[in-house]
Specification:
84% helix
């Protein structure tokens, strides 16, 4: 019984060091991986608001589990860590901004007008293609679609227009996302570096 009590006491009294930095690094790496995957596959087609929700969730994870070094000296290692977290946060924030950038591209740029023209041409090609008309007639004869062949062809043309427009706008938006990503990373690093230096100065005075 005494041995058991001693073992229990030693087990209860021993406290393992809090793996805070390991948690920070895991959150940083996990968020970076998720952001890169989302940006890689999100650029295939139109950027939707689900990408913004994903970016917001990644930022929430990073904010919940990552902590800036408290009172640490501004060493090169600390600088590298701040640069890493700033870059990852910028990638996640870029996901949030992607649908907004796409709206701007679609509404007020020549590239957006080009995308709409390409989509309209693609829809017209579908409606004027004899092979597509024959396919619509065959689909109606099989009972695969409701309505007439003209209605089926019109729906196919509208779907083609949406697809082409989304792919075009998504591709152009992806080419412009580097600009806000770089700006956010630089701004985030500057703020984080200022906070670390402020904490270190406060700790040194104490």
């Amino acid at each position: 019984m005494r041995a058991r009590r001693q073992a229990a006491g030693s087990t209860g009294g021993a406290q393992s060091p809090a793996p805070s930095r390991d948690v920070d690094r895991a959150a940083l790496l996990g968020t970076a991986l998720a952001a890169v995957v989302a940006l890689t596959f999100g650029g295939q087609g139109e950027w939707d608001w689900l990408a913004a929700v994903t970016g917001g969730a990644l930022l929430t994870v990073l904010a919940a589990f990552f902590r800036l070094p408290g009172g640490a000296a501004p060493t090169p290692r600390v600088r590298a860590e701040l640069a890493a977290v700033s870059a990852v946060a910028a990638l996640a924030a870029t996901l949030v901004l992607a649908p907004v950038v796409q709206i701007v591209v679609a509404g007020s740029t020549d590239a957006g007008r080009t995308c709409r023209a390409s989509a309209a041409v693609a829809a017209g090609t579908v409606e004027s293609d004899e092979a597509r008309r024959s396919g619509a007639d065959l689909a109606v004869s099989r009972g695969d679609v409701g309505g007439t062949a003209a209605q089926a062809l019109s729906r196919a043309a509208q779907d083609e227009e949406r697809t082409v427009l989304g792919n075009c706008l998504g591709a152009i938006t992806s080419r412009w996302l580097w600009a806000p990503a770089v700006g956010l990373a630089a701004g985030g690093y500057a703020v984080a570096w200022w906070l670390v230096r402020r904490r270190h100065a406060r700790t040194s005075r104490e």
